[in-house]
Amino acid sequence: MQYPIKRLSLPAYHYDSVDLVHLDIVLAEDSRQNIIGIAAWEHRESRAGSKHLSLHGIYVDPLHHRQGIGSKLFRVVEEAVRKHGFNGLLLKAQQGSNGFFISQGMQRLRADDPLHQYANRFWKSAASIMISPD
Fold first, then answer.
1. Residue ranges of the domains in the chain?
2. 1 neighbors 34 (Cβ within 8 angstroms)
3. Domain 6-128, what fold?
4. In whole angstroms, how far apart are CA 34 and each of 74, 84, 126?
5. pTM score, whole prediction
6. Which of 29, 58, 64, 122 gets the highest tally of CB atoms within 10 A of its CB?
7. pLDDT computed for residue 116 by the predictor
8. What are phi and psi of 82, to 5 degrees?
């Protein structure tokens, strides 16, 4: 089996056994069962008691970009938000992926909170997640 995606190809991005205890992961495979995409998330609770899903990332093999794979993985993540009754979905995105997450209906959060100074934070409330007709 080939692992052509960034998450699995760069050691700093590898998930280890500790990550797997805390993360939910879904894979996208091609017709030959090669992994071509991955989405990973965990359940979080804020200091105020609000529960949300924290998206660690969606990664798709560049050879498979613009084929709807990332959007399908994002739908799975949204389904997890609704299934577990979370308030929404939080993400810290890499600069190059901002456009994708904006196209999925996520809203950029301001970076003026001293505890959360990260330029590419996004939020999507559970109320704005549409139920898939499938």
1. 6-128
2. yes
3. Aminopeptidase (3.40.630)
4. 19, 30, 32
5. 0.80
6. 58
7. 59
8. -65, -45
